[in-house]
Specification:
Blueprint (H helix, E strand, L loop, with lengths): L1 H18 L5 H20 L5 H11 L12 H17 L4 H5 L5 E3 L4 E6 L5 E7 L5 E9 L6 E7 L7 E6 L5 E7 L7 E8 L7 H8 L3 E3 L4 E6 L3 E9 L5 E9 L4 E9 L7 E6 L5 E7 L7 E10 L17
Antiparallel strand pairs: 1-8, 2-7, 3-6, 3-8, 4-5, 4-7, 5-13, 6-14, 9-16, 10-15, 11-14, 11-16, 12-13, 12-15
Helix pairs in contact: 2-3
């Protein structure tokens, strides 16, 4: 009887020791995580057990060594700047660019805005129609109730002579607003192309540095005719930091406006105006009017952009009769 009681005591001690055998505290924490993962797995309906989900989560959270960059950051920035300059140095028609971008439709009387981050150095704006007249206001917004650059655009034929300009966007909180001021029967198609190369020199700066320019005093008029071989011209307007107010017109024939742009720029040095005007046909004249007072002169440069050597102005009709 005494021998049996000793055996029972030894069994009780052994069971008590196994009952007090606990796991590592770190494993106990993992057990709680497994339970929570199992609960989420049941809610998602995937039927996975807590251990399987926890192991998969542990595999996902395992840090891996980042692959070394094969190309230095300086080379990438230099390559982006070269590609941006190649984009400006390679002449393309506005119709070709519309095939490469994703345009949007702006109905008559409506407003469309497009915002972008501060890594964008400049943005190109493209407007066209299906052959109808175009009336629109294009503005650069920077912060609330601040429009450092505005322009009013009129096109007699938005398909034959689409609008194409480049707006400098230094700083942050920039957005481009396009308002179709025409009637509901005259929608327009708008597109944007951003330049994130980080270059401080835009196409207008390159033009005025490599071509001739002249000063247009306040209230003065500057006109430049072009031969029929010139398919498009580039116009650049800037000031010495003072506000810029001007009107750029494309004439074809006496007092026949095909395209009119009224420009306002808060700082003509930081945000110059650069536009490419399509000039199909013959008898094209670009007229620049400085609508500001005599205290605000501006610098203008007008040069051909695309020249068709095959079109030297040969008359295809008797007497050279041309309707415009």
């Amino acid at each position: 009887m005494k021998f049996c009681s000793n055996i029972v005591a030894i069994c009780a001690i052994a069971s008590t020791a196994s009952a007090f055998t606990v796991q590592n505290p770190s494993i106990r924490a993992n057990t709680a995580v497994q339970a929570s993962y199992s609960y989420l797995g049941d809610l998602n309906g995937d039927g996975e057990s807590g251990t399987a989900v926890a192991q998969s989560a542990k595999k996902v959270s395992t840090p891996t060594a980042a692959a070394p960059a094969s190309t230095p950051a300086g080379s990438i920035a230099k390559k982006a700047e070269m590609s941006a300059m190649e984009k400006y140095n390679t002449p393309k028609t506005t119709s070709e660019i519309f095939d490469e971008i994703a345009p949007v439709t702006v109905q008559g009387g409506s407003l469309r805005t497009c915002s972008f981050d501060e890594s964008v150095s400049r943005v190109s704006v493209y407007l066209k129609t299906e052959g109808r007249p175009l009336n629109a206001n294009v503005e650069l917004w920077q912060g609330p109730d601040n429009s450092p650059q505005k322009m009013s655009v009129y096109l007699e034929d938005g398909s034959l002579r689409p609008f194409r300009c480049t707006i400098e966007s230094p700083g942050s909180s920039n957005a481009v607003a396009i308002r179709n001021t025409g009637q509901m029967e005259f929608p327009l198609t708008a597109g944007l192309d951003v330049d994130m190369s980080g270059s401080t020199e835009g196409p207008g700066d390159v033009l005025i540095a490599n071509c001739e320019y002249r000063t247009v005093q306040g209230g003065a008029v500057y006109t430049t005719p072009f031969p029929p071989s010139v398919q498009s011209v580039q116009v650049m307007l800037k000031s010495d930091g003072r506000p810029l107010n001007a009107r750029v017109e494309l004439l074809q024939g006496p007092n026949n406006n095909k395209q009119v742009m009224e420009i306002y720029t808060e700082d003509g040095s930081e945000r110059p105006f650069y536009v490419i005007i399509d000039t199909p046909g013959s008898g094209n004249v670009v007229r620049i009017v400085n609508t500001a007072t005599v205290e605000f002169p501006l610098t203008a440069s007008v040069e051909p952009y695309i020249v068709d050597e095959g079109n030297m102005g040969s008359d295809s009709t008797p007497g050279g009769m041309i309707w415009s």
